[in-house]
Amino acid sequence: MRQQIIAQTGTGSSAFIPMNLDTNPFNVGFGAVVTGSATYQIQHTFDNPWTTASPTWFTHPSFSTAQTTSLDGNYAFPVAAIKILTTSGTNTGTVTLTVIQAGIA
Question: In a 10 Å sphere around its CB, with 0-12 CB exposed, 13-18 middle and 19+ buried, how is residue 27 labelled?
Fold first, then answer.
């Protein structure tokens, strides 16, 4: 999968990045970069975000507490999609998430 980038400014949920569940190994690396002031979590779902009206989102274990600094992490197990949840911040506080999945580019 090519590098995917999403961002969230202010409080709320970003768009999601769907993962390729057919890639073996699944391996996904990501980095979250904070500019300004923002508190955030990285979340994933096992539901199909295209067909499920309200997917259930889980917080990545390394982000179980709200974060305020730039961090990276990975997924070694399959998830259907990844997003940012910003729980507080200013209108100028932005979290940018870059995701790279192993496999075909």
Answer: middle
Dihedrals phi, psi of 49, to nearest 5 degrees: -70, -15
Number of domains in the chain: 1
Per residue in 9-54, pLDDT tens?
A: 989 999 999 999 988 889 999 999 999 989 999 999 999 999 999 9
pTM, to two decimals:
0.91
Q: What is the extent of the structural domain holding 67?
A: 4-101
* DSSP per position, 9-34: ESSEE---EE--TT-SS--EEEEEEE
Q: Cα angle at 9 between 99 and 90, to 5 degrees?
A: 135
Residue 13 sits in a domain whose CATH number is 2.60.120
